[in-house]
Amino acid sequence: MKQYKDYEVEDFLLDDEFAQWVRDGSAITGTRWDELLTTYPEKKADLEEARAYLVQVQTGSSLSDTELTQEIQRILASTTPVVEVPVRYLNSRATWWQVAAAVVLLAGVSWGIWQGLKPTPTYAYEQVIESSNLPLTEVNNSQNKAQPVTLPDGSRITLAGHSRLSYARDMTKRSEREVFLTGEAFFEVTKNPRQPFLVYADGLTTRVVGTSFTIRTGSKQVSVLVRTGRVAVYPMHESGSAQHSESHLMLTPNQQATYLTEANQLTPTIVADPHALQSESQPVSFNFDNTPISEVFARLEKAYGLTIQYDKVTMQNCQLTVPLRDEPFFTKLNIICQTIGASYKVDGTQITISSEGCK
């Protein structure tokens, strides 16, 4: 289910139904977007900015359908897949201007794990670089220590030792900011809804607008760990399919995705060491004194941006008295569960608490 209350400009641009409505030029009265603004009037500015931008891109496109198809192939920077992937030919401008808007990325991958697929081609760093028509600048960190890199758009990268990345020298003039990586790097991306930031790494595409995250490649797998903001990930070979954009795997802070390149499996989970989110408001206190367990879990969710499921009726009498400070997230959770006689398990990106209740 879409969480319209959380929509920002980039979310509207990513929404195929929104893009279709803009393309049709229909009045807003009676549509779901009219209902959205009635429920969340504070979203009007974001909606109008996204609509204006899509209209501008739609009316400003001057490429032929053939040229548009070739441009998509350049962006994907891919080779012919080993497995058959459905191809949607560009027979209308409606399909391309969403791509030209740099946010509807043509396809995605399903939530969870893809199984039973044949091996997909290897998108090795050298292979993708050679097939790209972009004017690239490469940074090769052959040292054992990390190297700071600043991109033309102001985004900052901490490139780990023995890692390489390439980026378009003229990325600020393009509809998308594209980076190619092998090794490991931490990204702090300058926010720009009109220019999505894409990182290609060993067959996995990571798409963001403005956030911070880490990408690691190696041992036939790619991992993406999100620190702040939201990130969409999907296999590069899926980028040309006709799947809905909702099928992208969306990651939020303290979540990660691991992509097994040969098995074509993409699995979301929680990072091993979640970090407390920075808040402009007063920091969350973990000094509990006869605090209802519902409040305890609510503070954890607010501080770390994670979802904790539990039976509120069964645990309604549970209270916690324990002073917690700077312990790691899972240490806090262990202490809480042991104190009230409960247990927890992590299933994907969700934490589930099991308890027989408290007297």
From TrEMBL:
It comes from the Bacteria. Pfam families: FecR (PF04773), FecR_C (PF16344). GO terms for molecular function: sigma factor antagonist activity. InterPro entries: FecR, FecR_C, Ferrdict_sens_TM. Residues 286-353 form the Protein FecR C-terminal domain. Residues 143-231 form the FecR protein domain. PANTHER family: PERIPLASMIC SIGNAL SENSOR AND SIGMA FACTOR ACTIVATOR FECR-RELATED, PROTEIN FECR. This is DUF4974 domain-containing protein. The lineage of its organism: Bacteria, Pseudomonadati, Bacteroidota, Cytophagia, Cytophagales.
